[in-house]
Write a structure and sequence with these properties.
- The protein is mainly alpha-helical and 73 residues long.
- The protein has a domain at 25-58.
- The chain is built from 3 helices and no strands.
- The longest helix is centred in the N-terminal third of the chain and has 17 residues, at 2-18.
- The radius of gyration is 23 Å and the shape is elongated.
- The N and C termini lie far apart (57 Å).
Length: 73
């Protein structure tokens, strides 16, 4: 019984990886890379404003950025 169960689990595990299909097709990626899909219109100025906010508030990483607390990020 245990042997049959182990074989069944192995078959399920092996078949799960082979049927994966990506949600975004290769021909749709060009539309998703369009600048209108960005969260902000000017990423350079947004990064600068977040740096100013971090330095003024002492709240590094509050907007989701990664880095250390030394201010060198």
């Amino acid at each position: 019984m245990l042997r049959v169960f182990c074989i069944f689990v192995l078959i399920l595990a092996g078949s799960g990886c082979s049927s994966f299909k990506p949600w975004v097709k290769p021909y749709e990626r060009g539309q998703l890379a369009d600048p209108i899909m960005a969260f902000d219109r000017d990423p350079v100025s947004t990064k600068y404003l977040m740096h100013v906010y971090d330095a003024r508030e002492g709240a590094r990483g509050a907007e989701g950025g990664a880095g250390g607390g030394c201010g060198c990020g």
